[in-house]
């Protein structure tokens, strides 16, 4: 059985002709009646299912399916090799479900054949999967070797609960677009995107990212778009150091809006020579002399900057909200020196300190008297001899 669940409800399916393709559109479909009637799912190459009560899925009966969409349903799990037995599958959309884990072997590089086993998937025909959409689920774990499909070109993991991605995509050597917006990433370490030499578009917006290693992007030789909007980064130095600086020289579109940036080095634009469009709006720019180069860059090439009207000063406080482009009060930052009043510590005398002082005083007094006696006695002897 393809679908399994104990939930039942009414279903409705109809055919739609689109781009010379026959789509089967099903709404509120149930596992009980998915194969009933003349419009059985096995007859179609293009299937869209929404608002269903499907919980588990296996595709061993879909030998010819090319496009499958199951959205806004109750799908919880992706079984081991669950889609490997569909040799013609090119697009798979499973957004708006309840998936929590991408398990080992879920999307192998080779489809299942009679000779392939769970221990060896490197047999059979290579997978044709090109688009995989797992957005708006509850995914918090990507197991090692769960994504090994070299044919994959676009992977959408937006709006999940992913915290770590280190090396999880290293087998996707053909991947061109990766969407990780709206997750829980806090840092990008070395090798986060290792081996993704074909990647052209990387979107990481709306993540609490604070730290980016200087070698996080070292493998992204063809990257042309990088989206870091609505992150918590406070510096762009990661883009100026090797090997990141070498990998990002092809970058054409950079989005750094609504971050915690307050400034940037003057050599920033020199380090990204192919930049065509940059978003710097809604940041906390400190408009002092060291940021004046940004105004110069905007005036020289306004077409480079998106939403110039929203690139405004955050400080000094007296000029908050003024456009960086029109700002005129450039000055060195001043820091108020607080008044420091020295108050000597209060020493409270005690019995021991008073006694010690009296002993020392007595010693000096006695010593003085002895010296006086010695001197006076010597004087008297000299007088008698005379």
Automatic annotation (TrEMBL):
It comes from the Eukaryota. The chain crosses the membrane at residues 351-376. Gene3D superfamilies: Ribonuclease Inhibitor. Keywords: Leucine-rich repeat, Membrane, Repeat, Transmembrane, Transmembrane helix. InterPro entries: Leu-rich_rpt, Leu-rich_rpt_typical-subtyp, LRR_dom_sf. PROSITE patterns: LRR. This is Uncharacterized protein. It comes from Elysia crispata (lettuce slug).
């Amino acid at each position: 059985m393809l679908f399994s669940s104990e939930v039942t409800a009414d279903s409705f399916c109809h055919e739609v002709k689109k781009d010379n393709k026959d789509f089967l559109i099903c709404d509120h479909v149930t596992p009980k009646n998915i194969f009933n009637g003349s419009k059985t799912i096995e007859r179609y190459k293009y299937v869209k299912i929404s608002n269903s009560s499907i919980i588990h899925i296996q595709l061993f009966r879909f030998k010819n399916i090319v496009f499958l969409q199951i959205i806004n349903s109750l799908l919880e799990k992706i079984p081991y090799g669950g889609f490997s037995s569909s040799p013609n599958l090119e697009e798979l959309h499973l957004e708006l479900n309840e998936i929590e884990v991408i398990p080992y072997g879920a999307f192998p590089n080779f489809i299942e054949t009679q000779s392939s086993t769970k221990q060896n998937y490197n047999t059979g025909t290579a997978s044709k999967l090109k688009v995989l959409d797992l957005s708006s689920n509850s995914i918090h774990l990507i197991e090692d070797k769960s994504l090994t499909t070299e044919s994959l070109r676009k992977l959408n993991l937006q709006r999940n609960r992913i915290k770590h991605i280190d090396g999880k995509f290293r087998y996707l050597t053909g991947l061109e677009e990766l969407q990780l917006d709206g997750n829980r990433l806090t840092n990008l370490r070395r090798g986060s995107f290792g081996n993704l030499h074909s990647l052209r578009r990387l979107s990481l917006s709306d993540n609490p990212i604070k730290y980016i290693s200087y070698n996080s992007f070292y493998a992204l030789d063809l990257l042309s778009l990088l989206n870091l909007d609505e992150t918590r980064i406070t510096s762009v130095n990661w883009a100026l150091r090797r090997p990141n600086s070498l990998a990002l020289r092809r970058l054409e579109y950079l989005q750094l809006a609504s971050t915690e940036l307050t400034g940037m080095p003057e050599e920033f634009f020199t380090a990204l020579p192919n930049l065509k469009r940059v978003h710097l709006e809604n940041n906390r720019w400190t408009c002092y002399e060291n940021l004046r180069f940004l105004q110069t860059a905007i005036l020289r090439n306004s077409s480079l900057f998106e939403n110039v009207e929203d690139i405004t000063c955050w400080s000094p406080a007296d000029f908050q909200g003024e456009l960086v482009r029109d700002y005129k009060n450039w000055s060195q930052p001043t820091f108020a020196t607080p008044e420091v009043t020295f108050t000597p510590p209060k020493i409270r005398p005690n019995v021991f300190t008073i006694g010690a002082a009296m002993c020392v005083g007595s010693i000096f007094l006695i010593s003085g008297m002895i010296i006086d006696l010695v001197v006076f006695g010597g004087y008297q002897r000299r007088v008698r001899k005379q």
